[in-house]
Amino acid sequence: MNPVLKLMLEGEALSTAQMAEVLRMDAAQVEKELATLKAQGVLLGWRPVLNPDYLAENQVFAVIEVKISPEREGGFDRLATRIAKFEQVRSCYLMSGAYDLMVIVSAHNLREIAAFVFERLATLHGVVSTATHFMLRAYKEQGYLLAREHAPADKPAVSA
Q1: Is CB count within 10 Å lower at the N or C end of the chain?
Q2: Is residue 137 within 8 Å of residue 154, measured between CB atoms?
Q3: Where are the domains of the chain?
Q4: Residue 49: pLDDT band by 50, 70, 90 thresholds?
Q5: 30: burial class by Cβ within 10 Å (0-12, 13-18, 19+)?
Q6: Where does 11-159 have alpha helices with state H?
Q7: C-alpha–C-alpha distance, residues 51 and 7, integer Å
Q8: Are 142 and 49 in contact (CB under 8 A)?
Q9: Where are the alpha helices (DSSP H) in the chain?
């Protein structure tokens, strides 16, 4: 991975001094506010928004619909938390409707995602069924429209 992108993914977007300058605040006050937000669990980390086309050669993403049996005293939470801890899982949401969890996963190829589903996810006690949908092309990512003028139109970003 590009070292600048790697640093951005692992580090903070702006220094507290830079934030203080933009906000016209004292740097110590910004640090205090950040510490408070982290302690309250509001601020979990910093992530830049990357164009998925950049990752297309190295990453495959899928949305997995998961039906689970709620536990007597834990409801969906215990199993959902267990699923969320898998390294392949990028996001995990409790949903209303036809399925209980929407799990977004990534891997290096389609086979790795398939193996994750049939070896690890579907075999968990409490998982009733799964349906996997591979992401082929992104048009908007975290609120940002993705420019597609120069993208090849004949082939999806993900292919076998």
Answers
A1: C
A2: no
A3: 3-39, 53-137
A4: confident
A5: buried
A6: 16-23, 27-39, 52-55, 77-84, 110-115
A7: 16
A8: yes
A9: 3-10, 16-23, 27-39, 52-55, 77-84, 110-115
Topology of the domain covering 53-137: Alpha-Beta Plaits (3.30.70)
pLDDT in tens, 103-153: 999 999 999 999 999 999 999 999 999 999 999 888 888 787 887 665 555
Amino acid present at 11: G
**At residue 146, what is the residue type?**
L
For residue 147, what are its two tokens? 């420019």
With contact defined as beta carbons under 8 Å apart, do 157 and 56 qualify? yes
Query: What integer pLDDT is reported at residue 140 of this predicted model?
Result: 86
Tell me how crowded residue 151 is: count the other CB atoms within 10 A of its CB: 13
What is the C-alpha separation between 93 and 158, in angstroms, rounded?
24
Structure tokens at 111: 């086979």
Output the six-digit token pair for 133: 């949908």
**Token pair for residue 96?**
């209303």
- Alpha-carbon span 127 to 114, nearest angstrom: 16
